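Support request, priority: normal
Reporter: lab tech (M.K.)
Component: structure prediction queue

Hi team, I submitted a job for Proline dipeptidase from Deinococcus gobiensis yesterday, and the status page still shows it as pending. I've pasted the exact input below so you can check whether something in the sequence is tripping the parser. The sequence length should be 334 residues. Please let me know if I need to resubmit or if it's stuck on your end.
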Amino acid sequence: MDALWVSDPANVRSLSGFTSPADGKVLVTRQGATLYTDARYTVQAEQESPLPAFIARPPATYDHAAPGLEGLRVGFEAESLTVAGLEDLQAAWPGVTLVPLRGVVQELRAVKSPGEIRQIREAQALADRVFGEVRPLIRAGVTEQDVAYEIESRLLRAGAESAFGIIVASGPRGALPHGHASGRVIEDGDLVTVDMGARLGGYHSDMTRTVAVGTPGEEMRRIYRAVYEAEQAAVAAVKPGVRAADLDAVARDILTAHGLGEAFAHSLGHGVGLEVHERPGLRGTSEDVLEAGMLVTIEPGAYVPGLGGVRIEDLLLVTEDGHEVLSRSPIEEL
Ligand SMILES: CSCC[C@H](N)C(=O)N1CCC[C@H]1C(=O)N[C@@H](C)C(=O)O
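Reply from support: The job had stalled in the queue. We restarted it manually and it finished. Here are the results:
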């Protein structure tokens, strides 16, 4: 490639520092990089980005870049540029060969800088604090939405936001891996899965705890212990050089031995940063290999329709000699 047209918001932010990246693009050439945004952000772009900014809206944006790109091969982000966006580039840059690329900047983002690690550590510490405050409020008679409200309002008051729609899945709803908080009233004997994170300075945290209200039935406690065993084994295996696919197998093999292989309906985990889900992907088909400086979740789960589910998730920093668990909320023993 001679140049790269960056349209994915998290990539734009990562390369430019501009905090309204949905309204920005970055063009990287051999001479340097330029941030493109519009006049709503003239001051903000100057304050936030070390890149020279060109303030315009398309098609003036494309016209500005066109002369320097004539005859070149320019990569674009196939996963984020819309069909209409590509048609616009083709019309504006007839002398340019546009080449679809995937994951170029995402791969660079997988290993975090010390500043990024600091931000995510802070986001996770806040999430731990909030979870600790809210845990005693998770009891019979309150709704899942009550729990989510308590979490979200505390995050906002602390100057953060919720990293994603908070998952609070109680009783049989625990079988929904992405069961966003509903009006269901939590009952005595329920397991309640709470999956939450803080977004602070643009960076995310991500953690899940499944907690008991009263004493759940024997089958759910058996499932809980199996997930806990799988989670702890996968956490213990995290270190540089480990293949993501092998890590996924550590947890999956344990759950399979407990008859819960089919019930583990998603990947083991994922990288976390400017996005909640980013590289590396910890799944069976992944070719990623762990490196020091990556931040990953380990989150095996088991979901049984009609009965319920369990997920336990920690956020880990891969270090030179192994890992550090950043999520500190206690994991309950059942
Ligand atoms: C909507 S963000 C969800 C955050 C959560 N901690 C999470 O990442 N989950 C919940 C269950 C599965 C897992 C997930 O969505 N994994 C993705 C990467 C997958 O495709 O497996």
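The two ends are 55 Å apart (CA to CA). Residues 271 and 296 are 4 Å apart (CA to CA). Let us know if anything else looks off. Ticket resolved.
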